[in-house]
Amino acid sequence: MKRLMILPLVLAGLAAGYSVRAETSGGEVDFGKFSAPGKGSEFVEVQIKSNLLSLAAQLVEKEEPQAAKLLRSVRMVRVNVVGLTDENRDAMEKRIARIGRELDQQGWERNVNVQGKEGEDVGVYTKTRGGEALEGVAITVLDPKHLVLVNVVGDIRPDQIAALGESLHIKHLKEVGTAIKQND
Predict the structure, then answer these.
(1) pLDDT the model gives residue 160
(2) What is the pTM of this model?
(3) Hey, which of 56-70, 83-97, 165-179 has the most confident mean pLDDT?
(4) Model confidence over 142-152: pLDDT tens digits?
(5) C-alpha–C-alpha distance, residues 160 and 176, integer Å
(6) Which residue of 65, 74, 102, 107 could cross-link 20, Cys pair, CB 3.0 to 4.6 Å?
(7) Which residue has the higher pLDDT, 90 or 179?
(8) Are 168 and 6 in contact (CB under 8 A)?
(9) pLDDT in the model for residue 17
(10) Which H, E and C letters describe the chain, residue by residue?
(11) CA 114: distance to chain centroid?
């Protein structure tokens, strides 16, 4: 049961204007400001910074030291979800296209690019520091009902991901960490 409670915290640590304004530091991306699209539409804004992530690490330290180590390596998680309406759809489509172009221009590596039949647009970008660590992950998703933007900033090392997968018995997480280490 405790492992089930820890997993969402860890995944959140891996996961948290009309353009990407300026890259503020390392892997941090400023997606701009959002406002709720109106009554009856979804709007979510989450920003978890290092102080809260450190507190979460202290809570799991005894039971899951690898999870705690990974949480301490994350400096910030930001998640924005904006429900799409007839009024904001065009602006959000333009915003996500601009974000992708600007991340490409800023040297982020595009790892995933999906263009779906129904207009879905998914991008996963990473910014690395040499071959030793991830500085940032940016995820952009546009589907028929939502715009989702995620930015995770930190100093995340492949061995931490693999060790976390091992300690939590998450086969796929262990494989991801091992694959990242082999590609370096």
Answers:
(1) 76
(2) 0.75
(3) 83-97
(4) 999 999 999 98
(5) 11
(6) 102
(7) 90
(8) yes
(9) 28
(10) CHHHHHHHHHHHHHCCCCCCCCCCCCCCCCCCCCCCCCCCCCEEEEEEEHHHHHHHHHHHCCCCHHHHHHHHHEEEEEEEEEECCCCCHHHHHHHHHHHHHHHHHCCCEEEEEEECCCCCEEEEEEEEECCCEEEEEEEEEECCCEEEEEEEEEEECHHHHHHHHHHCCCHHHHHHHHHHHHHC
(11) 17
Residue-level length of the chain: 184
Q: How far apart are CA 73 and CA 163, in angstroms?
A: 14
Q: CB-side exposure of 57: number of CA atoms within 13 Å?
A: 20
pLDDT exceeds cutoff 90 at 101? yes
Q: What is the pLDDT of residue 8?
A: 42
Contacts of residue 180, Cβ cutoff 8 Å, sequence gap at least 6: 158, 161, 162
Give the pLDDT of residue 176: 59
Pick the closest to residue 80 from 99, 53, 103 (CA basis). Answer: 99
Residue type, 6: I
CA quadruple 102, 104, 105, 107: dihedral positive or negative?
positive
Q: How many C-beta atoms lie closer than 10 Å to residue 41's C-beta? A: 15
Cα 114 from Cα 142, distance rounded (Å) = 10
